[in-house]
Structures are given as structure tokens and as C-alpha cells.
Design a protein that fits this description.
The complex is a heterodimer of chains A (225) and B (171). Chain A is mainly alpha-helical and 225 residues long. Chain A has one domain. Helix content of chain A is 78%, strand content 0%. Chain A has 11 helices and no strands. Chain B is mostly helical and 171 residues long. Chain B contains 7 helices and no strands. Chain B is rod-shaped and about 150 Å long. Classes of the chains: A mainly alpha (225), B mainly alpha (171). At the A-B interface, helix 1, helix 3, helix 4, helix 7 and helix 8 of A face helix 1 and helix 3 of B.
């Protein structure tokens, strides 16, 4: 399937960005904790390294929820800027990743609120549609600028959005953080400021809804060869 | 557990959410039963695949261009913003340079000299007016009138030439 080949081409790029979970992932987490420690004690260099380490993860996390590249880039930048400004408020450096995600969750929530408000006057919604169309048609040498890839991407997100529309806000958020952002239950509880049992309950409900209607299986069949 | 002694779908979903939610008995069954473990793995794999496809469907972001730099430590609290402080410093510098320039010095000196002169002449003028108010007669008439003698006052004049209103002797 040509679409999958295109997606596979992209995977090489992503492989370089994200270490696979396991020993390498744990090593990067240990490195992140050390860097966070240095950053909290005032090292800008350490924070820049942390930003390099988590930039793509946060960008993807934002994109999963907003689906507009330019807005996702802006929000990702804002997340890191806010994190940099509020480094003193980070009490436990081991929770840097969860803390960063909690900033991102709040930023996205604010962004959506603003978007809802402005869409009442038909400002932002028009702008986003225009931006998306422009970015789709603009000639670009990057693999993600390929028209076929863009069609597949848009189709995937449309269906994915339909699946998620059956979930409540918290169910959706917990599901995304667990299976798309690969956070643990403890990290999700910090990011959402909820206790672990609440997180587990919402995750269970989300999974039950998705399992019952086989929507995930159908989406996978359409996206896989 | 269901009637056949296997994990129910609910328990498998619970296990996908978090394996620690299963009882030790259920965990043991899961490790021994191929049917239950494959059902669990299948659901977990579906979710993993979904995560991978989602990851691949994200466009690559532009490279981060902002570097974060700590501002230098402040020895005193900054009351005003950087721009305000800069504008104030430029204004002060402008005034200092202007006030110390030769042309400004000349201008100020000229203006100050004429101002002092004007004050002095005003003083003289006011003194002249006050003396005229006190005694409007020219100096030689003052001699005749006797006002110039400090020993003469109203009481002594009254004693020499009593006024008609105060004539108590003639009573």
C-alpha cells in the first residue's frame, strides 16, 4: 500500500527523534532527570537540552489534540517558554516530564476555549481552514508535504476524531496520554492533577467504549496493509 | 472469571488499563492461559498500532529556534521595565549634555543677569514709592514742616498747638 510506504518513510525520521521504550528509554529518562535538576538550579544549557529532548513529544501531543501544524508549533513553543519561566515551581525534578505535559494540557485547554469563543464570530475557524488548505497545497520537499500522504493523514485524523467523539473529555484525555503519548498511570495522574484511581477508571471506561464497537480495529484495517 | 474459567472481557480491559488491577489469581491464570493472554495481547497490539499510526500521521515540526537564556542575577529589584529605564536614561543624558553645552550656559547666564538687574531696579522703584507714600512733600518742605526732626511727633505737636477737639482747659 503506497500510503503505508509513505508512513514508513516518515517512521525513519521519527525513530531518530524518539528512543524506543525499554533500556534506551529509561536511560533518556535518567538523563532527563539529571538535566531537570541542573535546569532547576539555574542552568539554561540544561533546559535547552531538555527542550531538545521533549520538543517533538510535546509537539505531537499538541497536534493530536489540535490537528493544525502551525497552531501546534506555536503552542509547543509556549509550553516550553512557560516551563522555563516557572522552573522554580517544579518541586520534584523526577516529575519534569509529567509537569511539562500538565502545562501542555492546560495550554491546549485554554487554546480550545479561546477558539470556541472566537469561532462564535467566525474568525479563527475560517483562518484555520485557510491555513490547512494552504499548507496542503504548498510545494514542499518534505515527505509529509506529499499530497497522497496528506490525504491519508487527513482521513486518519477524521476517523480518529469520530472514534474519540464517543468519549468524555477526561476519558479522551486519559486515553490519548496513555496510548498516544505513552505516559504511565502515575504520570497521567500528575499531568491531569487527578488521583490514580480516577485515571484508571476513566481509562477503563474509554477502553470499554472503544472495544465494544470495534472502531479501533476498523481504523487499523483501513490504515494497515 | 466467566463460566469457562477464563477472564471476562471486562477483566481483560482492566488488565489493558493497568495490570495491577487484577487479583493474583487472575494474573496467574493470565500467564498460564494462552486464550486469555492472546486476547489481552491482541487488544494491546491494536492500541500500540494505533499509537504508531498516529505518530506517523503527525507532520514534522519546524526546528525549534528559540534558545532559553537565564537573565543575569539582579542585585536590586527592577521597578521599571527595561524600555522605560532606557528611555529615562536617554532623557537624563540629553538634559545633562544640553545643560552643559556652551550655548545653553550663555543663554542661562544672560537670562540670569537680566533677571537680577530687573529685580534690583524693581526694588529701588518700590522703595521710592514707599517713601513717597510716607511723605509726599519734597525734602525742603519737610524741613519747614518739621517732619524731618525725629523728636517731633504728634503728641509734642499737640502739646504746642492743642487741637480744638481736645480743648479741655477752655472747657
Amino acid at each position: 500500500m503506497p500510503g503505508l510506504r509513505l508512513l514508513s518513510g516518515m517512521s525513519e525520521q521519527h525513530k531518530n527523534i524518539n528512543p524506543s521504550p525499554g533500556s534506551a528509554g529509561k536511560a533518556s529518562e535518567t538523563q532527563a532527570v539529571l538535566l531537570a535538576q541542573k535546569a532547576v538550579s539555574g542552568s539554561s544549557h540544561a533546559f535547552n537540552q531538555l527542550a531538545d529532548l521533549y520538543y517533538n513529544k510535546i509537539f505531537r501531543m499538541v497536534y493530536y489534540r489540535i490537528k493544525y501544524k502551525m497552531d501546534a508549533e506555536d503552542l509547543t513553543q509556549e509550553v516550553f517558554t512557560q516551563a522555563f519561566r516557572n522552573l522554580n515551581s517544579l518541586k520534584e525534578v523526577e516529575k519534569f516530564k509529567s509537569w511539562l505535559f500538565s502545562i501542555a494540557v492546560n495550554k491546549i485547554r485554554d487554546f480550545k476555549r479561546k477558539k470556541q469563543f472566537t469561532s462564535l464570530f467566525g474568525i479563527l475557524s475560517d483562518r484555520n481552514i485557510k491555513d490547512e488548505k494552504e499548507s496542503d497545497t504548498a510545494p514542499d520537499s518534505r515527505p509529509d508535504a506529499n499530497p497522497l500522504y496528506n490525504v491519508m493523514r487527513q482521513n486518519f485524523w477524521r476517523q480518529f476524531e469520530l472514534i474519540l467523539s464517543r468519549l468524555s473529555y477526561l476519558e479522551k484525555e486519559v486515553f490519548l496520554l496513555r496510548f498516544l503519548d505513552h505516559l504511565g498511570i502515575n504520570e497521567i495522574s500528575v499531568a491531569l492533577d487527578k488521583n490514580e484511581s480516577t485515571v484508571k477508571t476513566h481509562l477503563y471506561r474509554a477502553l470499554k467504549k472503544l472495544k465494544d464497537d470495534d472502531s479501533v480495529k476498523r481504523l487499523l484495517k483501513e490504515s494497515m496493509p | 472469571m466467566n463460566d469457562n474459567g477464563h477472564l471476562t472481557e471486562d477483566r481483560i480491559i482492566k488488565a489493558v488499563a493497568d495490570k495491577s488491577q487484577l487479583s493474583p489469581f487472575e494474573k496467574e491464570h493470565l500467564s498460564n492461559c494462552s486464550g486469555c493472554s492472546s486476547a489481552l495481547e491482541s487488544f494491546e497490539n491494536d492500541l500500540k498500532q494505533l499509537g504508531k499510526i498516529a505518530e506517523l500521521s503527525v507532520p514534522s515540526p519546524k526546528r525549534r529556534f528559540i534558545t532559553y537564556e537565564k537573565r543575569s542575577e539582579r542585585n536590586f529589584p527592577r521597578i521599571f521595565g527595561l524600555r522605560t529605564s532606557l528611555a529615562a536614561a536617554i532623557t537624563v543624558l540629553f538634559f545633562v549634555i544640553t545643560l552643559h553645552s556652551d550655548s545653553m550656559k550663555y543663554l542661562l547666564n544672560t537670562q540670569t543677569g537680566s533677571y537680577v538687574d530687573a529685580l534690583h531696579s524693581d526694588d529701588l522703584f518700590i522703595t521710592e514709592i514707599n517713601s513717597l507714600v510716607e511723605n509726599a512733600l519734597p525734602l525742603k518742605y519737610v524741613d519747614i514742616y518739621g517732619e524731618a526732626d525725629p523728636d517731633y511727633d504728634d503728641d509734642s505737636m499737640d502739646f504746642i498747638i492743642p487741637s480744638s477737639g481736645n480743648d479741655t482747659i477752655s472747657g
